[in-house]
Every structure is written in C-alpha cells, then in structure tokens.
Design brief:
Layout lengths: L7 H53 L17 E4 L5 E4 L21 E5 L9 E9 L3 E9 L7 H42 L17 H50 L6 H30 L6 E4 H11 L5 E6 L4 E4 L1 H18 L3 E9 L9 E8 L33 H11 L3 E5 L6 E7 L7
Parallel strand pairs: 7-9
Antiparallel strand pairs: 1-2, 1-5, 3-4, 4-5, 6-8, 9-10, 10-12, 11-12
Helix pairs in contact: 1-2, 3-4, 4-7, 5-6, 6-7
Catalytic activity: ATP + protein L-histidine = ADP + protein N-phospho-L-histidine
Subcellular location: Cell membrane
Keywords: Kinase, Membrane, Phosphoprotein, Transferase, Transmembrane, Transmembrane helix, Two-component regulatory system
Length: 458
Amino acid sequence: MKLENCSLRGRLALFTSAAVGVLCIVFSIVLLFTLNRVATQNLTKEVTAVGELAGYYVDRGELVNPLPPISNNLIRPVQVVDPHGRVVAATRDLQHQPVMAHFFPKSPHQVASAVVCNSVLPGGCHIVVAQQVYRDGDWTIYSAAPTLPFYVYPGVTAILVTGTVIFTIAVAYGARRTVTRSLRPVDAIRAQLDHIRSNNLGRRVPVPVAKDEIYQLARSVNQTLDRLEDVLEQQRRFCSDASHELRTPITAIRAQIEDALLAPEDVALDALCNAVLPSVERLQSIAANLLTLTRLDAGVLYERESVDLAELVAAVLNSHQATRRIVQDLAPGVIVRGDQARLRQLIGNLIDNAQRHASSTITISVRQTNGDSPLAGEVAELQVLDDGGGIAADQRETVFQRFTRLDTARSRDAGGVGLGLPIARQIAESHGGTLTIQDSNTGARFVVRLPLPQPPGG
C-alpha cells in the first residue's frame, strides 16, 4: 500500500517509529564503538603488563625459554628478541616461530602498539605491544592479544537489538494511540459536516474543551457555517423577493394580453402597447438592476479614472427629468478616482430615490471634508437631502437591504423596487467609500464619502 493512501495516524506512527528506530540504531552503534574502544584500551594495558613482566625477567637476567608461567588472567603470546633480532624466548604457543612484528618504540621508555595480521599469530589479527629493555643492548619484548570484535560483548549487542525493537514498537503504538485520541475531535467535526445539508444549516460542529489547534479549527468552521447560513438565507430571500417583483409586471402583461385576446375587435394596438409598455419597462429595470448586483457581488474589475464629482453630478442632473425643485451646492475641483459609469449610476439612484420621497425640494451638495474625524484625512463628500417624511433611525440600515420598502410611500406606484439604494451602497463600497443616512431637520439625508486620490509620493 502506498504511503499517501495511509491514514494520518498511520503515517505519523510510521514516521515516529522510523525516527526512533534510527536514533536507537545510531545510539547502539555509538555505544558499541565506545565500548569497543574502552575494551581495546584495557586490553592494550593488559598486554603491556604482560610484556613488562617478561621485561622484568630480562632485566634481572633470569630469562628462560619457554617463558616462565604467567598468571592465568595474563596468559598472552610473548616473544623476547635480543639486540641481534633473534627470538631468544617465547611462550609455549610461539616456540620456533619468527618475530611476530617488526616495529619498535621510539625510545626505551615508551611503548608502541599496532594491529598485526600474519601467520605467526594464528586466529586472525592481534594487538601487538612492543617494549624495550636495556641489558648489554636493546632487547625488545613483543606481547600480543587477539583484537576484539566490534560488538565486544554479544550479550550487550543482544540487549541493544532487543531494546531497539521493543522501544520502537512501543513508541509506534504510543504515537498511534496519542494521534488517534488527538484526532477524535476531528472525526467528530467531519461526521457533523457530513450530516449538514442545505435544509439544516443551523447545525454546528462540536468544539473540544482543550483550547488547542483543533479548538481553533472548530471555531473557524462554525464561524464559516454562520456566514454560509447568512449568505444562503440572503439568497433565498433575494430569490423570493425577485420572483415576487418579477411576477407583478408579468401578471399585468398577461392579464392585458388575455383581455385583448378575448375581444380583439375592441382593442386598439397602440392602446395595448401603451398599457403593456410600463410593465415591460419595469421588467427591464429589474433585470438591469439584478445584473448590476450580480457584477458587484462578483467583484468585477473596472477602469479607474479621475472624475470631477461636481461635474458628474451636474451631468446627471441635466440628463434627469426633474419632478422636484433641486438646489445645487457643488464645490468645483473635488476629484475622485473610479469608474465614471458606476459613479453616475450611484448619483442617479440617490436622485431618483429623493425625487420619489421629497415633498418639494431636493438639495445636492459636493465638497471636500475631513470626514468623521480630523484623523481620518480628507474625503470627497456628496450629500442628497430631500424634504420628505424622512427615515427613522432604527430603519436606516434596513433600506439598504435588497427589495426593501419601508411604507406605502415606497410602493410600486412610486416606481421603486428596493434595489436602487443597495446598488448605490455597493458602488460606494467598491470605490473604498461609504454610503450612510445621517440626521437632518427634515427628510432623509444620504451622505456618500469617497477617498481622494493620494498625491504622488504620498
């Protein structure tokens, strides 16, 4: 089975056990190497002691061949070589054998050692120690012992191998068990997510008690579900409202056409077209507004250019058929950067809204101001004020919801479908600005604030 097909707990357990196994093997090798080095040093000292004992007999002139018995714990192959390079004495196992080595210590008071592999010393390689004793010349004593294997003591190696296997298995089991317990909240979150459908978005994933990374994950998932539920609820409400708004003009058109079909001889074509045309225009307006909202929601990019806000307001007023008296207070030279067509639509929507609800007068002003506070920096401000009935403070955010009309004044007879103000706010926000309703002595005062372009190098 491929590693990528394993579960997370399996991969973590495998990785942990492999890492621990490698560490145990490295530790065992280092330990065996250290033991081998220490044991070799001790063996060299022991071989040196055997040679010193033979040197004692040479120094006293009591040399015999074969060499006199050595204590059982110091029995080692030994050769005594005279100043002429002849073997004059040796232990019983090296009788009638040539010199076991051909190296010498640098001085009589030093000891030289080397690993020698030859036929004189049977049984493989040996550690040979050379010492010199002066008696009518330099006598050399060679003592030897078989080299130690790398593992030194088989029992220690067996313990290390067994311990490595047991410890690796224990760590793998512990790691898998720990990961399994740690991932239980994740399994609970996944199981709950699997049961969440579009008709039960009110369900939430369980949040573990321990405030760890999984706790943060569960909180983020629940927050995402909250936002998703809100978005879907808005979509349902939007679809319901859009269907309701579209059904009204369609029903009117159907009724007028059916009446014409029942008595075609009594219906004039121009009269029928004039009766149907307002409903068609309303359908066209709703479809255009829905398309605009779709593009705004999708965040479609647009070209930014420098726009004189006062000139744009004046152009919009010239293209509108005024039904109320309009008072203009437009400060020149208030430049913003944005999409001219969208800003024109924003201004037009606010003017249309004001004309529907104003009693007699609409006041439009453009200026450059510090915004809400001096620390906020200068902004371009557009105000549209009507002298109508106004909007209660607790309903000022409601009017920016799609298809919202507060009272009979905002009815279909007045021409509004509840999309103009939401579109205007989204256009303002897409330009980095705001659209709010603020206090006024009479009527409703809509305030648009847009950021001014940064000066070069600012």
